[in-house]
Amino acid sequence: MSTILIDGCAIAFKPGDNILRAALEADVEIPHFCYHAALDSLGACRLCAVEIKPKNSNEAPRLTMACLEPAKEGLEVSVSAAAAQQVRRHVIELLMINHPHDCPICDEGGECHLQEMTVTCGPPYRRYRGRKRTFTNQDLGPLIHHEMNRCITCYRCTRFYQDYALGNDLGAMRLRNEVYFGRFQDGPLESPFAGNLVEICPTGVFTDALFRQRFARAWDLNTAPSICPHCSVGCNTLPGARDGTLRRVRSRAHPELNRWFICDRGRYGHQYSEHCARLLSPRVSGENTSYHKALNAATTRIKTTQNCIGGIGSAREDLEGNTMLQALLNEVGGVFTAFNDPALEAATIAAVSWLQNSAGAPSLIEMEQIDAALIIGDLTAHAPMIDLALRQAYRKGAELTLFHSSPTPLAQFTTSAITVPPREMYAKLSHLCTLINALLAGRDISDDPMAVIAKSLIKARQPLLIGTIETLTATDASVLAKLAIALGPNARLTYALSGPNAYGSALLAPEGNAMQILESVETGKIKTLIVAGNDPFSDPRFGLRWRAACRNLNTLIVLDCILTATAEAADILFPVAAWTERGGTFVNYEGRAQSFLPVFHRPEYLPSAADVIADLAKYLECSQQDVLSVLQDTFPDFQVPAPGTLGSPIPVSLPPISDSPSAGSPLLSSNNSTWQTALMSWYGDETLASFAPGLTSLAPTTIAMIEQATATATGIVDGSKIRLRGSADSVVLPVQLNQNIAAGTVGIGRNVLVRLGLGHGDPIELEKVS
Q1: Do 600 and 692 fall into the same domain?
Q2: pTM assigned to the model
Q3: Where in the numbering of this chain does the 2Fe-2S ferredoxin-type domain appear (predicted)?
């Protein structure tokens, strides 16, 4: 590898590196402000001044910016040269002229890059005694606080927001020494990645508004390596806690996944752990009790219903909790699943089976390198960081094709975006697969409207096919895998799954068990149901059946860290530790197992779900072993990765899944309705995040969205009201017309689907009200 000399020290560099990047990767500090490894070099701050020694001794040394100077073999660089030090002192002095000097009350205190560079580079005092330039701050919503007077004009914020995240509602305004970074008017930032401004800003211009409410200095926070629990990507995070409460969540670098960033759901969804309605004491028959009395009550009721027991784990429960629940049920003659929705169970198991029997899913860093992609569904809502990775691919020239049923922000970056009704997705994907096979066989398909898409995927060097599992059926997931096979070995396949441990849950849950448990509860064959980290009562399609079926139970035992509808109905309720209050393992969408550590412990005793189940097994006098032994028995070749490492795959094989149209759990049968539902999500739409007030305050208004041509044909106008009828209830909603929703579908939010008792793609009755 080639090297450069920095103050006499040999530093290796990679092709394309500049001096600053090479130095920082070798842990050699060169002062800087505007440089960030994720952003292109700009040279705006002038702080990374270095001196280059000329090869000709008759020439004078050259002063340059390290972030703009390419690293070359044999280059001799001096950071400590007097001329370079003088430039840095002048830069700092100029920046501090208008700085408010409010370090004692600044939220950035203790982790402020400006503070560090001022101490490092000088000068030690300020000579300027004139009047300071000041700005008026903006209200940027409930998540980000704006303090413009601290700005040093490094342009990091706009380079991330506009150039990297491709947002368009924050920018640089005005000229010269009055450059202002903000919006044209007050209001919440629209990007689902806006919270990264808090970390990317080297001063305190953008700070965490939620953290300000219960602020603590950085050096007072307890931290530990953790994994985000809000989707299947598995972003690495660094939560901070103090005095027994969680205060904030920040990103933790992972070179193959999230790298330096996380989405706003991952950053601000943590408020659920401090929610005012969170239970901290066990309940039996609605009364608070001690942990041991709750265990005794659960033991007594389980013993009276031996061999009539079912258990539901969860995609948001860690691998340890799900595995322990399955082992306990095996001991007492029960049935286990990790899903309350049979259709979601079938789709997830199908997706994981295809991934386990293929080359595996690509990492986020690999997704950034693809040159074509076929995207099925709304990634922004279900896996925001995959959305961000595909935006990087788009910036590099990738052609993105989108099949979607409801609006999604990613559509604006696609070459082709096609709206497809949910019930027609299988036919659309099958037709595309037929076109690709025909094209590979040399047949002419130029007359077909989707010929351009087929040709784009075939000519791509690294095509990617990705589906959002929550809005796909098992057959949709399988035909997407068939498409990847048809495109050849260079094609990559992946799915955005429904929770942080959905992959691990699919490895444990036999297909068909969700429906078996539901029907057994309905018929009275199951008398005791144990639910760990799940909420079957709030399932859009099957919630009504679960609520009715559970009236037949003798006992409903729930283990959860939030007060869901199912938890409220529990006969015995065990409050368990949130993800920052326990250790565990999540298996992300790639099949990468990643472990996390507890960040803090509350004064109240809050065990993990795995601990509760282990204690319950002891009370039942089962032969069940400890968590690590049970994991080893379930996954013999798997070693739990150390927290803070890159993670490791679980070596398990699943049988191939049939891709026939009848495979898996079908959508609800048509009731002769010409309309069908389409789930409209947003980036804060997730079970845990729904208990985060700061995030939910940004939720979109409740409407019914209809495609304009379809609405016109049926006499529906924008702003009018319609009545929607489902299997559980009816609701009246205002109409919003939108071209980005499939014809014949009604786009509605998850809360409305739950109320109506319908799932994505189910038939719905529509009636004009006004």
Answers
A1: no
A2: 0.95
A3: 1-83
Say what the pLDDT of residue 360 is: 87
Among the listed residues 343, 166, 205, 345, the one whose alpha carbon sits nearest the alpha carbon of residue 758: 343
For residue 769, which amino acid is it? V
Nearest-CA neighbor of 631 among 650, 655, 659, 658? 650
Residue 97 phi, psi (nearest 5): -60, -45
- Do 364 and 475 belong to one domain? yes
- Give me the sign of the Cα torsion angle 719, 142, 238, 535: negative
Do 623 and 524 share a structural domain? Answer: yes
How high is the pLDDT of residue 263?
A: 98
Q: Are residues 259 and 318 in the same domain?
A: no
Cβ partners under 8 Å of residue 8, min gap 6: none
Predicted confidence band at 656 (pLDDT cuts at 50, 70, 90)? Answer: low
Percent of the chain scoring above 90 in pLDDT: 90
Assess whether 156 and 269 both reside in one domain. Answer: yes
Q: What is the pLDDT of residues 479-499, one digit of tens each?
A: 999 999 999 999 999 999 999
- Tell me whether residue 670 is in a domain: no
Q: Which residues pair with 735 in a beta bridge?
A: 704
pLDDT at 57: 81
Continuous segment of H or E residues that includes residue 335? strand 335-337
Amino acid 668: pLDDT: 53
Extended strands (E) in 540-647: 555-560, 572-575, 584-587, 592-596
Q: Residue 472 sits in a domain of what CATH number?
A: 3.40.228.10
